[in-house]
Every structure is written in C-alpha cells, then in structure tokens.
Amino acid sequence: MIKAYKAEYINGEFVFFSVHLFNNMWRFGDSSWKRGDEFDTEAKKAFEALMTFRLFEPTSDEFRDFQEDLELRRKRDFNWTSPPGDDFNFFTSAFHDVIILISLAVNETLGESGNLSDGYTLTRKMWNRTFEGISGLVTVNANGDRDADYSLWDMTVNGESTVVANFYGATGELEFVGDIAWPGGATDPPPDTPFCGFENENPACQIQDSVLTITIIVSCCLLLGGSAVILAVYRKLKRDAAIQSRAWQIKWEELQMQSDHARGCRTSSFSLGSVSLKTEEGKQVFTQTAFYQGRTVAVKRISQDEVKMNREILIELKNMRDLEHPNLARFIGLCVDVPNVAIVNEYCPKGSLMDILQNDSIKLDWLFKYSLISDVIKGVQYLHRSELSVHGRLNSSNCLVDSRFVLKLIDFGLPSLREGASQTLGDHALLTKSLYGAPELLRDPKRGPTKEGDIYSVGMLMGEVATRQGPYEAESKNMELSEIVDKIKCPPSGSLSQPFRPQVAGENVDSSISELIKACWAEDPKDRPNVNSLNASIVKINRKKNTGKGILDNLLNRMEQYANNLEELVEERTAAFLEEKKRAETLLYELLPRVVADQLKQGKAVDPESYDSVTIFFSDIKGFTELSAQSTPMEVVMLLNDLYTCFDGIIEHFDVYKVETIGDAYMVVSGVPVRNGNAHAREICNMALALLKAVGSFRIRHKRDQKLHMRVGIHTGPCVAGVVGLKMPRYCLFGDTVNTASRMESNGEALKIHISSDTKVILEDFEGFNIELRGAVELKGKGVQTTYWLLGSSDKCVNAVTESEFT
User: Fold this and answer.
1) Dihedral, CA of residue 512, residue 513, residue 518 and residue 521, to nearest 10
2) Pick from 464, 485, 643, 724: most CB atoms within 10 A?
3) What is 346-364 written as a DSSP string?
4) Domain ranges across the chain
5) What digits encode the pLDDT tens for the residues 20-29?
6) Could you confirm whether domain 61-147 is CATH 3.40.50.2300?
7) Does 273-563 match 607-805 in CATH topology?
8) Which residues of the chain fall short of a pLDDT of 70?
9) Candidates 1.10.10.60, 1.20.120.530, 3.30.1700.10, 3.30.70.1230; correct CATH number of 607-805?
C-alpha cells in the first residue's frame, strides 16, 4: 500500500482488499489503526484504500456473558488474568461451538443405539446441521464445511476501521451496516476495467503511448548523437594536445654516458660508448650509446641542417611514441638540436641479428632459430596492424637482440628523417641493404614501402637465420654486389624462367622452412603470404618440431643454450664473485671474532655465553677534549684513524680481540670468545705495554710537537659475551668486570698502566712482569680498592712488535 502511494498512484484508482483472520496482524485498538503508540501519517494516507475481510465478531448478550464467565473461570481455575491491552480473541468461541456440535452428534447416535467407535457414521451426524452456538447461528453444510459469517471493515481518512457490511454464510445474505468511504474523495468504487484497458487496447491511450514512445526514441537518438559528437571533439582535442605536447623531444644536454674507462665516471657532457652492429667492407660500424634518465639508450645521428616539424611528422612521432611491443625496440624520442639531430631508441646489449649469426662461438639449434624467426614475424605483424602500417627497412642489422635474447625490430617509421641517415652510408652499405629489398621496390624506389615488401624482407631474414649466411653470400664470391642487385631487379624473361634468388636448401635446413621462405620470395607480391598466415605457419612448424615438449621444456632448452653461449662470461663473473666474497669475509672477520663469524655464515644462532675469567683493557687520551677543540673535525678524524691504525697493527700479534672504539676510548679483551686459561692477563698486559711504547713515538700530523698522553686501565673477572643486533651486529661484553675496567682507566694517570689486584694475582703465575703497588684507590661504585702500576715486562715480543710497526 505504501509503495503504491509513494509511486504516486491516486487512491481513487485502486482499492486493496486484505483477508484478515486474526486481529493481531495489525493492531486496531479502539477502532483506530496504530503501529505501536505513534500514528504514521504517510501510512494512514496510503491505507485509505484498504478494506479488510474478517470473521464476523458476535455482539449478542449471550456472547458477552460467555466472555465474562470465561474470564472468571480463568482467574479461578488457573489464577491468570489477561494483561492490560490484551483483547479477548473471539475466535476461541468456535471451540465452544465445536463441543456443542460433537455433543449433538453423540446424543443422536446414542438415541439410535449406534456405535460411537464408528467415526465415519459419527462424523456424518455433524454434516448438514444448523444449531444455535455461543457465537450465533452455526451452519455446517453437506460437505462438512462451516458456512462462516464475515465482516467488511473499511479504513477512513482518520485511520479508523469500521464495519460497513456483513456476509452471512448460511443464507448468502450481504447486509450493509454503514457507508463505505471511498478513497480519494470518490463516491463510487473504481471501474472494473481501467481506462486504457488491461492490454492497452484503448485507441486514445495507444496514440498517447505512440507519441510518448516516439518522443523518447527521438530524445535518445539526439542524446546519443550529441554524446558521439562531443566524444569525437574531445578525442580530437586530446589527440591534438598530445601531438603538440612533444613528449618525444629530447634535449642534447640530457644525453649523458658512463665513461668507457675502468673507473666508470660519468662525464659532464655527452660521451659515446660503442657496440658493434654490423660488418661492412670488413669494418665494424658502431652504434652510439648514451645515458638518458637512468638507462642506456642507442643514439642514431642524422646529418640534417634543419628539421621541419609539420603536422604529418608530429603525428608520426606521436604514433612512434605510442608503439609498445616485446619485439619492437622502443622509440624513446628525437633530438632536433641542430647539428645534433638524432633518433634515440631502446638499447639492446647483445647487438644485432647479424652479429649473432656471424659469431661462430654462439651455437644456435633449431629451437633457438625458430624463436628468432618467430620474434621477427611477431614484430612485423604488430607493425602491420599499427598506425605505421609497414616497416620498409628490414635487414639483419635492424634486428637487435636484448639481454634475454629476445629479438626486437628497429629503424621503422620517420621516412623523411631516415633518408638523411641513409645518405651518410657508403655505396657498399647501401648495396648490402638492397639485397633485402623486394624486386618491385628496387625497380621503382619512389613506390614507397609496402606490406608485401616487408614479407619479402622477412623471407630474406628467415633464410639468413636458417643458413647462418648473409643474403647472396655464395653468389657474392663470384659476382659484385651491383651485379647481384641488377639481377634481382631484372624480371623473369619467360614463364619457365625463375627469378634470381639465393639458395637456402641444405642438409641443416628444414624443408618446411625452405618452402615458406620461397613463398615469401614470390615474384608477384600478391602470391606472397600475409603476415598472419606466415605467423600461423611458423607456429605450426614449431609445434610440429617440438612435439611432446611443453612451454617449460622449450624455455629450459633456450636457457640452456643461452648459458652455453655465455660460459666465458659466467666464469669471469664467478671469479669476480669469489673475489668479492673473499673481501666480504675479510671485512666480516674484522667486525666479529672469526669463531662467531663462521657460525653466522653457517646460519647458526650465536647464543650469549658466560666466561669465568677474562681480562679487559680500556684506554683513552688525556686532554683529548682540549685537543679536539683546537683542531678541525677533519683533523680529529685523521688523528684517530692514524692512532687506531697503529694500535690495530700491534694487537694482531697478541691473543686479544678488539671490542670497539668510542671516540678516543679503545677497548680490547682476551679470553673471549676462545678461552685461553689464565693467559688472557699476560696477553693484555704485554699488549698494553706495547701500545704505551707506541704512543710515546706517535706524532700528530697537525701538531708535530705535541705528544699524546694515554691512560690505561686493566681488570680481570667474569663476563657475558654475545652478538647484539641484526643490522651492523656487534660482539659486546656485559658484566661488572667491564665497569670495573673502565673505572681503572678513568682513575689512572697519563702514560701509566693501572691494573687491579685480580689482574696482579694472575700475573704472579707468569715471570718477568714489573709491578708496583699504587695503594688504596676510591673507585666510583666499587669502594676502596687496592691497585697497582704495571711498569714493564721482560717479554721480548713487546719491543719486537713495537719496532716492527714503526720500521
């Protein structure tokens, strides 16, 4: 109802009848329609067209007495009272009438001495019977169905429901007890048949619908036409903007190149690398390579004094820029800065197809050859479908091979600009390129490139790949190139004469490939296959030759071929890798103890480890803060580098491990990570004497007359050591021994070695150490400790090591 009302139907146009058997579906309390406790204005308005059929509700005094008696018995027998608002369901009176009906049937059966167990007979006693029940007159027809009474309820504009008619089922009488409030202000019910008819058969509606349909169709056509015009104008404006944007233009200053020298420094101006592309007259012709926007590109110079940018060239440059295919070398841009006019293309490091075929060290099986031929055909197929339509200059020097051995075509498009590049070639080069041209184009150079001419050139490339020989290579041994070109131009004199073509048949040439090549060389361009049929033929041949091999097998074979061809390069790179690995391992051994580094290399976890006794060395430079204030940061760095380089060379002669350096502090330990009994005290003390002697001879670069005053502190005790961190991991020591050694250093004196009593006790096991009692010293956080000065050692290694470092 609400949906029809919201769809703007007029209430006078429809009436909705609802069969309502139970009054708890919608609440009609106090003869008004409610939903909860709130009136819904919109719903009431919509439900003006609602009429509801419900069972006739008795209104007799007997029924009201029955209802009151039922309430009393419910309270007396079950101690239950209806909650407020729960109306009495008059339908329950039907159960009372059922009992009366059964009783009448039972009494009549007993009066006839009948059997009450005969359900069939007992049931028939209830049929075709009328009696006065509590709800009124009850009639059961001959079929055993009750002829019930119904009431028609109508909802008014105020949302009230009232009885407007009663229907008595026993007599079939319809009694109107009120007036029906027809919705929408109508005085009569809606017509049985709509104005336009159920099937829209009214002519007046048909004319109206036809006009409306025609109007809609014309409007849609105008809308579509306008949209098409707007879209066409937008696309044209967008294309013109793309043409005028000159996204292809490259400034000469933007082209840079990494130097060919070993240092690989990039020059500030444009420099050229060189890669061989083809051989002409025994000389190598090189392509120029440049560095542009982070990648290497190929640069082809054009000898032109000026470049006229008309709309035709701008459109072709835009089309060139839009071309993108795996078998086309991408056009990067054009430099029009006279005299440095150049075409910039994608760089392919493996050189040209000619280089690959002439390199005997590269082994090409037929799988590899099929792949190269397929790449050529796919590239030509894409060009024939593109805006450029043709290539026009196909030859083996214009087929480049990238680092993945994928063949890519180049030198397509821009015919007016490429004429300038062709003029710089010698006669021999032009004649060599003419060997790939179709006969009809050689006879009439002004004819321009054609798709049939490209197919002829593809046939020449297929023959070159199949035989690994240039076109007419066998014939060129006895003939000049000019004579060969003249014979190609000359058409056959008779129907039986054959056109002049190179020989491709041989033991190593597949017959199906040979037939396909000859079809591409047909004298009549119409007899040559198009690029689509050519691609289908090569795919079929390739599938036939590789029966039983999947894509993965072919890929593996191709990669195996590639690996064999690059064996020498792999060996060189392997040697370089091993050298770099050796350097990395050396650096790792400098950062971490060798035992720990080996565990990390093997992928093992390095767990922290506890040590019962180690000896730790701390040193710093007294007055380093004042010295730093009088020096520049560069001078401070150079000072520390010189000093610690000297120290690092000395400690290599002792069984110690350098933990770290922080500013002027130098920390060394012995007995970690490899235990050495009590020798750690001896090793640290001998090392400390050697370092102290080296400091006495050390000279500061920027203050030659000033000497360094180093303080040294040594302590022996337990500690825990382990690797900390993942990035730049450090082998660190933890424990009170580290703190005590630091306090020994900070409470020491310049050019003296301050040792603890624990260290002195262990040194007594070794002869040759000169130790002097210092006395009681207050150590921060440790209280009063008895400490000693280490004055010297009889170990000859101390003097030998120091002298060797300054020799």
Assistant:
1) 150
2) 464
3) E--TT-BHHHHHH-TTS--
4) 2-56+152-185, 61-147, 194-241, 273-563, 607-805
5) 554 444 443 3
6) yes
7) no
8) 1-41, 84-88, 90, 157, 194-195, 197-200, 204-210, 257-286, 419-426, 494-497, 505-507, 545-569, 797-807
9) 3.30.70.1230
